[in-house]
Amino acid sequence: MAKTINLDEDPRNADWLHEARRRRRKEAKMKYDEKYYDFLDGLRETGKTNMFGATPYLLNQFHELDEALARKILVDWMETFSQRGPRKRR
């Protein structure tokens, strides 16, 4: 059986991985400010909620959003997730 290599384990790969993820995020053409996507990526990593229920978390964190816009951001985050790839937290 082939050994699975985790590139995240080797710090020499960190810069390369970060740059690759940054390019994917840029290519995904996010419609809204990146801070919302970063927040949602972080929320997903915590496992606090099913991401279909993330709208209240967006509203609580970003008071400038109304419910309709928070839902649009969440939908765009979901639709672009596979293109962007999760961001590695530093």
Structural class: mainly alpha
Uncertain segments are none
Compute the CA-based radius of gyration: 15 Å
Number of helices: 4
What is the residue-mean pLDDT, rounded to a whole number?
79
Roughly what fraction of the amino acids lie in strands?
A: under 5%
Shape: globular
Strand runs, count: 0
> How much helix is in the residues?
55-70%
Oligomer: single chain
Write the layout of secondary structure elements.
Blueprint: H1 14-27, H2 34-46, H3 55-61, H4 67-84
Helix pairs in contact: 3-4
Describe this entry's structure for a reader:
- Helix 3 (about 55-60) packs across helix 4.
- The protein is mostly helical and about 90 residues long.
- It contains four helices and no strands.
Top keywords for this entry?
90 residues; 4 helices; globular; mainly alpha
Summarize the structure.
The protein is built from four helices and no strands.
